Amino acid sequence: MPAERVVVVSPHLDDAALSLGAAIARAARRGTPVTVLTPLAGDPDSAEPDPWALTCGFATAGEAARARREEDRRACAILGAEPVWLPFGRDTPDDVLRAALLERLEAATTVLTPGHPCSHPSHARVSRVVRAAGLPARIGLYADQPYAMWQQLGRPPETGTRARNAAALLARRAPPAPGAGWTTLPRTRRDWLAKQRAIRAYRSQMRAFGPLTQPGIALQEWAWGGERVACIETPCEATVAVA
C-alpha cells in the first residue's frame, strides 16, 4: 500500500490555508506529508497590469505573483505543508492546466479541491478540471473560503444583513453545513491557532479582503464545528488522511 500523500489543490495563493488550514496543520503534525498545489500562482515575470494585483497594492501581475508566493511560503511553513506553484493564470487553456495538474497529482493518495460554493470562476474551473482528470487518488471537496462565509454572512458593505446573519450564526440558528454529505474535520486549538497565523501571513490578500474576513471565517467555522469537507463518491473515504 502506498504511503499516504495528501495534496490540497488551492486555486490561488491563499485558498488552502483559508479553507483547510487547521486540517493541514493537524495532518502534517501527525506525520502525513501535505502538499499545497497552487495552479494559478501567476507568472513572476509578467509585466502586465492586473485589477486584483492593483487592489492588493501591486503594480503588475508579476510583482503580485512574487510577493504572494513569499506569503504562501511563510503560511505553508506555519502549517507544515510543502508549497508547489504553477505559473498559470485565468487565461491558461484547460488542456494545459489539466496536463500540469495530472503530472503533479499522480503520486497523491488523497486530493482535496474546492467544492462549495465555488462561486469564484477560477475555483469552479480548477475543481472541474481536477474532478474530470480521472485521478487514481481519493477525491474530496472542501468548503472554499472566504466565499462560503460570504455566501452565508453576506459581503461588505451589507452591514445590516451581515449583522443579522452573524447573530444567527452566534445563536446557531443558521444552517450548520453546506448541505447533506458534508463532514466536519476534527481539530485542536493548536491546529486552529496555526491556521490563524497562516492566514495572517497573506498580508496583501487580507488587506484587500478587508478586516472582517478572518473573524467571519472563524465565526462560521465555529458555528459549523470546524472546517467542512465532502467526497465525490459514497461511502466517503476521501477525508481519511486529514481526519
Brief sketch in words of this structure:
The protein is 47% helix and 13% strand. With 243 residues, it is of the alpha/beta class.
Q: Based on helices, strands and strand pairing, what is the structural class?
A: alpha/beta
| SS element count, helices | 10
Mean pLDDT comes to 88
Q: Helical residue percent? A: 40-55%
CATH classification class: Alpha Beta
- CATH architecture heading: 3-Layer(aba) Sandwich
Radius of gyration equals 17 Å
What would you call the quaternary organization? single chain
User: Number of domains in the coordinates?
Assistant: 1
Instruction: Identify low-pLDDT runs.
Output: 234-241
CATH fold group: Rossmann fold
Annotated CATH homologous superfamily: LmbE-like
**Which term fits the overall shape?**
globular
Order of helices and strands: EHEHHEHEHEHHEHHHE
What share of the residues does DSSP label as strand, in percent?
A: 5-15%
What does this structure look like?
The protein is of the alpha/beta class and 243 residues long. It has one domain: 3-Layer(aba) Sandwich (Rossmann fold), CATH 3.40.50.10320. The chain is 47% helix and 13% strand. It is built from ten helices and seven strands. The protein has helices at 15-29, 51-55, 61-79, 94-105, 121-131, 147-153, 159-170, 189-201, 203-209, 213-224, and strands spanning 6-9, 34-38, 82-85, 110-116, 138-143, 183-184, 228-231. Strands 3-2-1-4-5-7-6 form a seven-stranded mixed β-sheet, with helices on both faces. Helix 1 (15-29) runs parallel beside helix 3, helix 3 packs antiparallel against helix 8 and helix 6 crosses helix 10. The chain starts with 5 loop residues before the first strand and ends in a 12-residue tail after the last strand.
